[in-house]
Amino acid sequence: MTSPDFSDSLTWLEQAKTYLEKNQYIDALNCIHQGLALTPRNADAWLQCGNVLQKLGFYGEAITANHNAQRLFGSPEAKLKMIPLESLLAKAQGQSEDQPTQVNPGSPAVSSLSGQDFDFWQKRALACTKAKDYDAALAAYDKVLAFKDHHAQAWYQRGLILFHLQRYQDAIASFDQALDRQPDFYQAWNNRASILIQLGNVKEAIHSYEQALRWTDKQLWQAWDDLGMAMLHLQGVDAGIAIWNQGIDALWCDADDYALGCGSLHQRKGDFQAQQAWQDPSPTKMWKVAKLSYLRALDLLDFQTFPQHHLAIWQSLLQVRFHLQETAAVHSMLLEGAIKLQTIKQDVNLSPEQDRQLEDQFAGFQQMQVDWLVQQNQLKEAILWAERCKDRTLGYWRSGPDYDPIQHQYTDLQPLLNPQRAVIYWHLSPAHLYTFILKPNQDPVLFCAHSLEPEADNPGNLDAALIDQHFCLQLWQKNWDKAQHLSQKNHESALGLGADFWLKGQGIQLLTQLKEILAIESLCQDTLSGIQELILVLPGQWRHLPMTALFPEQISITLLPSLHIGLNLLKAKSSPQDHLLTIVPPNGSEDEKDNNLTELEALAIARSYQQHIQLGGLQLTQKTVLAALKVSAGSIHFTGVTATDRSTVPAPAWVLADGHRLTLEDLFELNWQSYATVCLSGGPQNLKPLPGFIPDLETCLLSLGVQHVLKSLWEVNHCSRIMLMTQVHHLLHQNGNPVHALRQAQHWLRNLTYRNAIQWWITVGNTLALDSSQATTLQRIEAELQFAAQEVGQDVCPFSHPWYWVGFTISGNFPEMLVWNEA
């Protein structure tokens, strides 16, 4: 716009108000910018500025502007925090006013009330909420209610903020205040019920859902949906389905959201009818019932109006038709589903992160293509398609949606095999689990324990066995995830996250169940007879599980994210260098002895190498680590933890010092061809698995050329980790075979007696140059072992429990005997 030649700020502000009345927010912000340039300490101008910034979607800057106004109202001489209004104007002019700019919001503290009015605090609360600064939003709503205690909407919004802060009882109390002032506030009833469900108070939640339906004349379909779930948990699936049927009958067909509501209730019915079919010895009837529910949902939620919702139901229906063995329909739906997915991606302006999430949400179409090929007895093609899916996931992350997966032939996989070496390739789809066995110069074999029984000649019996196995695996996975979640939630052990889960026996019990579900004993005795080395290719959902623990100790095992990566590693032919780079971040503990453990680990490992560089301490920044990685070679040992990066996409990262991290993007920018082995001994900071569309650290490193990646699946904050890692590097230096080095080191640790462990630490203490603090930690370790040995005996093996060693896994190929290059 052409700026008027006004000479004072008040005129500019009056002009801004005119533009605000016309919803011309960019012009209004320009006027405010001109006015603040003349009088930067004008509180009214800053208040108006905050209002406009909020309208434009700059929520973090809106909070800052309101904060400036608040401080100036209290003290005209208050220090201000300036906002780059010129750059914000440039951003705003590059977008439509109904598409707010996404910013990284700030979180200024809320100071005391200084005479501001209700409107000021209400706008501030809204801006803080949109910026996800929930503490500031809560404080602002408290100020709003100080002006208008009778304001039901403010009480309700305050309850939502408390929910985000996970203060559930306080959230319910706030909803109750809203309902005291407005009993027909159905949103408050519905959200109150949802929180009560989380707290386990199902009966009271049901009452709240019924109130929400009462005040909406039974037209709130979300309440019908949630009420059905509550009744299902209280009285079983039939009770939940009865509620959803009531909701379908009660909703008015001429309502604007009838199709969405009624379609969603049909979909919910189909989901639980399909679950019932899994558990039914004669499931065909229930599969057909689920199919009917999904078809009705698809009729209501058409692709043109509800594309993603429609495709999610389509994917569920596809699973049901697999189990009904409707082969022609399955093939047709697979093709049409792929076309619909591409249509969504082309028609919607998606960010790269949203595109990846969409790929992950509908990965079932690609995975069930493998199922269809298996049903056609095309096992080679099924494995190659599964490989294509894995390659696409990683390539998509590195190169974007235009990445074209590499096409292999089955014969290309033979270099990974030999007469003593086989591949177990597990493929997990929404409908089936398949176990493929690959041996040299043979067609792949589809393994199922049921297939070893005499009556297995009937394909229907084999399919029923695979379905039963898949259902048992789903139940097992839920139990594992629940136990891990509770272990992390109630984490008290100083030994590391999840230690109690293992040391109290729960982990061993669940692993034993998984071994039975996968029929590992039958697999080893019959199909893998004579095999000494195994390559395991795991589904993404299993990459946090200690799968090697399921197999006999005499079999050497390595993991590969995909066979394609294994083939690429065969081409590298890099020999290990006698160089070691250790990266030792401070572990964040206030206890000095905890940091000393990782320093002792690095020093003990370094004894095996001719050349050694160690990075550590507070100078361990992203910049210093990247610089070292560019010039070093050989082996890397990282003692720190890995964590989920704090960006919009939860990718894994190395945790360094003082908030610094090394992210996947950083790793992709480096040349890793000179590194033979990377050890990540610290374990993850969080036991929650990554989403399937995000590659883990070892997959990335292997794809970039690192020959082997050794990692810990959980934290082991114990001296046993130092012993295991030191022995691994010692054996690696002797024979150059990381796979055998880890296996032998694990065997050594689990059979080590107190007597030998004490002597090991004495030897280490005599050969390392330690400072006084490190020496004190080493003496403490020796004293603790001595005391324990006196209690139970010198010949007891203190580290025989799997928690100490089974979580350490290795990924990469089986190398031949290598000669160390001491250049």
Question: What this model shows, in words?
Answer:
- The chain has 823 residues and is an alpha/beta fold.
- It has 33 helices and 14 strands.
- Strands 7-6-8-12-13-14 form a six-stranded mixed beta sheet, sandwiched between helices. A five-stranded mixed beta sheet has the order 3-2-1-4-5. It has a three-stranded antiparallel beta sheet with strand order 9-10-11.
- Strand 12, helix 29 and strand 13 (708-712) form a beta-alpha-beta unit.
- The longest helix has 31 residues, at 459-489.
- It is globular.
What is the average per-residue confidence, as pLDDT, rounded to a whole number? 85
Helix segment count?
33
User: What structural class is derived from the secondary structure elements?
Assistant: alpha/beta
Gyration radius, rounded: 31 Å
> Per the principal axes of the C-alpha atoms, what is the gross shape?
globular
Tell me the distance between the termini: 68 Å
Helix proportion: 55-70%
Strand order of the largest sheet: 7-6-8-12-13-14
Total count of strands? 14
Low-confidence stretches: 96-116, 451-456, 817-823
Main pleated-sheet profile: 6 strands, mixed
